[in-house]
Amino acid sequence: MARLPRLYLPGCAHHIIQRGNNREPCFYDEADYKAYLSFLKDAADKYQVDIHAFVLMTNHVHILATPVDDQGISRMMQAQGRKYVQYFNYTHSRTGTLWEGRYKSTLVDSETYLLTVYRYIELNPVRAEMVEHASEYPWSSYRHNALGRMIQLIRPHSIYQQLGKTAEERQKHYRLLFRGRMPEQDLSAIREATNKAWVLGNDRFKAEIEAKTGRRAKPLGRGGDRKSEKFRVMKDQ
User: Where does the record place the region Disordered (predicted)?
Assistant: First the structure.
């Protein structure tokens, strides 16, 4: 089955995953993490992309971002990826590719899924059993969004801003989102949408995206053509 083209929509949040080739490490030490974030900030500023949340895992990266135009995400990822690979190969005396082909991304329905994706991203180290709480992991946006420790890269989404009138209120309400485990259905929905390039949102949002882009936003119903009028007529014969 041919890969679906990635969808880009100005002003819409995107969940992005970039994986290391063959699931090999993309980061070896603190300097690598810092370099990646520095290159990402430069590229985000240049191509006018707001970064809302991120996590840098050992062999992959998650980013939640909103572009100003439909080229911003792809240009940012290309520019950042190219510079980081050059840095990484030179620093660690290696050659060849670092990333596993092209990155994956999905459009996110801000009204129903945005804060869920924030949480999904920043809880990655907890699910991987690297730390017991998101606040313990240094290479994510949690400390900025939940604790107010400034990360220059981060630009808050309007939905995050609505959590409170002051920074302290927003951080307090944000921390409440991290109580308990994420529902399995949310985990599955996010993973399927991002890995398969479907849209993450409710039916109305998906219909809007299909109308704007002319591309399917969700998989066909089980059975595909089995639901067609032709199939029903044949079945009745």
Answer: 211-237
